[in-house]
Amino acid sequence: MKVTLLSGSAVGSKTSTALQTAAKYIQEQFAGGTVQIIDLKDYHIQFSDGRNFLEYEGDTGYVAGELMDSDVIVFGMPVFQASLPGTLKNIFDLLPQNALLGKVAGIVVTAGSAKHYLVPEQQLKPILSYMKAQIVQTYVFIEEKDFYKKEIVNDDVILRLQRLAEDLKITADTYREIKRIQEAAYDF
Fold first, then answer.
1. CA-CA distance, 132 to 100, in Å (whole number)?
2. 132-144 burial by CB neighbour count: b if 16+ within 10 A, else e?
3. Which of 26, 32, 71, 180 could share a disulfide with 165, CB 3.0–4.6 Å?
């Protein structure tokens, strides 16, 4: 199974730190699979112009292709101006409407305060649902106070990241088994 953790911002370090921490636990759950982090600040991504994602070249084509090839995607994002970053929205715009069909999606969010807790619920989950993802319902929300010197210092956050890794594995395995049973029913 291929797991991609996408850090959906071109600036900052907290989301990247959270995803690096999560990747350790995800690697334990998906032993034998491929786990990678794509941090958008390391790539030059073009603005979506309506083309098919296969027509983009360079970094844009690479990131879109890696997401399309993944079985599980963890979307990491900071909250900017009470919304998701434009860089992440652009990624969604690059992909086809059913890009997440058959994929399991998890969410990790960093924010300056608890006031933004519902941003992923009201803005990110509807996009993931529209794109047909199987969403792990409990997301990890991490506040500014949970970081110190580019490390997570809140044990509860660590436990929630571990639980997210477990939930991703359970959801991916369950979805794969359901698909196997459905395909076996066709008997060809």
1. 5
2. ebbbbeebbbbbe
3. 26
